[in-house]
Amino acid sequence: MRANVIAGMALVLCLGLPARGAPQETKPPTPPTPEPAAASAAAPAAEAGPACTDCHDAMKSFGSNPHATGKAKKGEIPNAVCETCHGNGKEHIEAGGDKTKIYKPAGLEGSNKTCLTCHDVATDQITRRGGVHSNSSTVNCLTCHSIHNSESHSLHLLAKNELSLCKTCHSTQVASFRNKPYAHRLGRGGMECDSCHEPHGRAGRDNLRQSRAGELPCLTCHADKRGPYVFQHGAIAAGDCLTCHEPHGSSNPKRLKRATVAQLCIECHSPIGGPTLGSQPPSFHDLTSPRYQNCTTCHVAIHGSNRDPQLLK
After folding, report:
1. Partner residues linked to 304 by β-bridges
2. Residue 241 Cα to chain centre, angstroms
3. Closest CA to 278 of 263, 265, 268, 292
4. In whole angstroms, what is the distance from residue 29 CA to residue 50 CA?
5. Contact 161, 168 (CB under 8 A)
């Protein structure tokens, strides 16, 4: 028995196995092999290229411009916003800002090539190409609009205050508003030229804005004169507001075209200028007498009446 035990111990020692009850030798754990860091973390962030705002300080506030709405990134204007109108600016930047290496929209060519790429709108009343302000060498998009230096708080990026801008060409009409005693008071926060006029409208009456019912813009404010009336004044049936009134300003009360009411009424209510458009005054109306020279003293419902065919009430 003893011999067998000795023989077993010898075999264990030869195989290198720990004997029963003998302390076992422990090896320190092998540390895990570190995984390679992500390429995005190990590699330094790529440096951004030159931006337009590096040289053009005015572009730093371009984020509030309608052409950049929603395109700013962390307060910075991407070069792609500028390139929409100015073309690729790579050569311009590499040349140190050489102005010959960048496109600048200007005049008729710039308006047609750049502005009308997005703003070429045409309806039965509006056109950018055939209207009174259609693009030409004299008047074009960039004559009235300034993309980078527009008037403060201007809704349409106007180059100047609207009244001053229109005065550049329409000096007579603007002077009427300022110098005539009876006129719409423009430039005071209530009305502007484009309250009545469509700047991009077609020629003729189509350059006037219309009410929602397709009427003259006068009725947008003066809705009480619209009607319909049972007995309508012939001047409205055969004409419109501009038959009697001067919208840009007048020296006469109510902005009438004539100095006295009788002078205006008699243009239709007499056969002087041709066929009578309206009924002639009765014989007892002596128009040389002041008593009969103020027609609206009796004909108070001058725009129309629902009660009296003579517009007396």
Report:
1. 232
2. 29
3. 268
4. 53
5. no
Q: Left if phi > 0, otherwise alpha if psi is -120 to 50, otherwise beta: which for 16?
A: left
Amino acid, res. 135: N
Q: What does pTM read for this prediction? A: 0.70
Task: Give me 63's structure tokens.
Answer: 């984020």
- Block means of pLDDT (10 residues each) for the chain, length 313 residues? 49 45 49 46 50 82 80 80 89 89 89 89 83 85 86 81 87 82 80 89 82 85 88 83 89 91 87 68 85 89 91 89
Q: Which two tokens stand for residue 223?
A: 């809705």
Q: Which pairing describes strands 231-232 and 304-305: parallel, antiparallel, or unpaired?
A: antiparallel
Alpha helices in the chain (DSSP H): 2-15, 39-42, 79-86, 90-94, 107-110, 116-119, 141-144, 162-167, 171-179, 218-221, 234-238, 261-265
